[in-house]
């Protein structure tokens, strides 16, 4: 599966920790950054795949599950540490669910928003990857 959990450097300090995401952490140029927050209990986000875009997800606060599917295999990864991110390559269906109270999901993307890059129907996704 075209995914990878990546450790983000953590600089520990008694005054609080600091983590930095620079060009050597993720394998693409950052073209878009957004974040999900105030996700209601039981709500799900994602529910799509990208044809070309790659994304890097980080749980800045709280936790949530990322359900991944490449058309053959399915996998669930829990993100709960602000110094750990999940790189999701193109062609991977993703659903984000089970957000804890106060969670914040940071998304760093390889491209600017382009609706044409999205596959929003799971059956269409299965047809594309087969």
TrEMBL record:
Entry protein name: FdtA/QdtA family cupin domain-containing protein
InterPro entries: QdtA_cupin_dom, RmlC-like_jellyroll, RmlC_Cupin_sf
Top-level taxon of origin: Bacteria
CDD domains linked: cupin_QdtA-like
Gene3D superfamilies named in the record: Jelly Rolls
Domain Sugar 3,4-ketoisomerase QdtA cupin intervals: 1-129
Alphabetized Pfam families for the sequence: FdtA
